[in-house]
Amino acid sequence: MGIIIAGFATCGKSILGKKYSNIKDLESSPYKSIMREDLSVEEQKGTKREINPMWPQNYYDAILKATNQYDIVLVQLKPEHFDYFDKHNIKYSIVYPNINNWNVVEKRCIERGNNEAFIKRLKEVFIPYYEDSLKRNYEKLYILKDNETLEDILKKENLI
Question: In total, how many domains does the chain have?
Fold first, then answer.
């Protein structure tokens, strides 16, 4: 059974999912929205999209299925997902940027092609999501230092 790690945007989930065959980055966008074929997932973040009527249960089902296929499943960090995990006694850990490092998060958003609307929304939830995360029933909470990424954390924990 794989472990679930909920990570704030720009922590390095997508990079890990591409780099390691035993890690699944379960990007939520294709589960939440009807996606356009002409734009990348990152380019579509912050744009108006039609909500998938199966959301969010389709995402939760995919997470649980992935834990049977991968050692580590990386998921979107959102309070409503924690509500679901906690209600269903699903174990998870959290990775979050240092709250004094918004500039690192913003730089990474720009580098990966996120639009201004997405970056603005992310900045609005940066502190509230962190505060919410602290109150949750997580197994481990990892706080990234400076330019540290989730990969650095997982190496320190001997998970990769």
Answer: 1
